[in-house]
Amino acid sequence: MSDAFDGKLRDRFSAPPPGAASRADCPDAERIQAAARGEASFAEVETLLDHVARCAACTVAWRFARAAAPSLLRTDFRWLAIAAVVTVALGAGVVLRTWINPPVELRSTARDAIRAAIPDGAELPRGAFVLRWTPGPPGTRYTVLVTDERLTPIARAANLEPPELRVPETALAPLPAGARVLWQVRAVLPDGTPVATPTFVARIAP
Amino acid sequence: MFEYVQRRLLQPDLAHQGAFPEGRRRRGRKYRLTIPPVDDVGQLRPGLVALVRRVVPPWLRDHAEDIAHNAIAQVIERGNPDRSPSYLMRAAHNAAIDEIRRRIRRPEVAIEDDGEAHAVEAKTPDPARATSSRELDRAIRACLAALASPRRVAVMLFLLGYSRAEAEALSRWGKKRTEHLTYRGLADMRECLGAKGMAP
To answer: What is the pLDDT of residue B127?
Structure first.
């Protein structure tokens, strides 16, 4: 088979000219998106492709859906995906620390004094997603920033006195079960010393 | 993902913004808790414009901004309470697909923001060339329709830009069968177009 023929045919087909024949009974955009993402049954893919073969408008629609969807080759690139996730997670940790740490010199002893009181990576139920940490000296005030893995803020509490924060279920609603939640505590000790903890991780229990 | 982090870095105060509408008391001490809003739907616009521009035919590329704008406007108008980023993105993509299809179905007229109908200017105004392009497109689609179903699917996936491995993942045919169907289907296409006196 001629590569030149194949390439030209693909170019011509994927860029229909003005006035190219389209049909009126087009499937919903959602169906095309699901099929292009590999989420539809093969029978559904066949049905839709039969339509696309006859419809210039849906040809471009499918190309859009395909370009917007992640690659179907999850298994072929699984190691690449794992490496990417690890890299992003490490990067996210570094970025989060750089981002939310106060621009002051912290005392290492004070920093170490406040630690997570729940195991790092602990799974917490949505209804009782309570983050706890070891308390500082009496009179210490805490500010807590909670984000998802993409650093999108989920909740922030300021001027806390008790060493715990209950994250509302509504704030966790957009996240799937098993999602990693990053959290960090910033404290002001009674003598005015600012302290920031490392970033801790909790998970949403299934 | 990196684009997202980049945006966060460019707006380092985002996490600290937002109103604190409700104060709550705990052990007599007032503290503030806020749930920041999700990203504005408008932030989808640059990515959507680029995506539209990448996939539409050349004669529609100049309308990529309009298409993305209309798609986002439709999502905002619907006002669905689910404003999670994934929902907004999917809704915007659906709206963009509908908008693209609308403009391809009626390329000669596009309704602009001013409510007036304007002709869409083709990049290739040569009428003879436009006619032959339409005829070729019609012939390609007729030949596709004439293919036996498995070959048609294989050829369609190829024409829509799927690699062999992706087509294999989508169809679960296996490597050999996918290759064979694609090869035979493209050979049929060549023969069919040749019989019509056409070549891409």
So the answer is: 77
Is pTM beyond 0.80? Reply is no
Q: What is the structure's pLDDT at B114?
A: 44
Minimal CA–CA distance to A171: which of A112, A129, A109?
Answer: A129
**CA torsion through residues A32, A36, A38, A42, sign:** positive
A35 closest CA partner among B97, B183, B17, B178: B97
**Is A4 exposed, middle or buried, given 0-12, 13-18 or 19+ CB atoms closer than 10 A?**
exposed
- β-strands B110-111, B29-34: how paired? unpaired
Task: Report the SS3 class of residue B77.
Answer: helix
Cα(B164)–Cα(B143) distance, integer angstroms: 21
Rounded Cα gap, residues A123 and A175, in angstroms? 14
Question: Is residue A147's pLDDT more than 90?
Answer: no
Q: B interface mutation test: which of A2, A6, A73, A199 has the most B CBs within 10 A? A: A6
Q: Is the CB of A20 less than 8 angstroms away from the CB of B171?
A: no
End-to-end CA distance of chain B: 39
Query: CA of A129: how far to CAs of A122, A140, A145, A197, A204, in Å?
Result: 10, 22, 14, 19, 8
Is A157 at the interface with chain B, CB within 8 A? yes
- Gap between the Cα atoms of B105 and A61, Å rounded: 12
**Does A154 reach chain B within 8 Å, measured CB to CB?**
yes
Residue A10 to residue B159, Cβ atoms within 8 A: yes
Residue with more model confidence, B37 or A196: A196
ipTM above 0.85, yes or no: no
Nearest by Cα to A7 from B92, B189, B86, B23: B189
Binning pLDDT at 50, 70 and 90, where does residue B178 land? very high
**Residue B145 token pair:** 């329709």
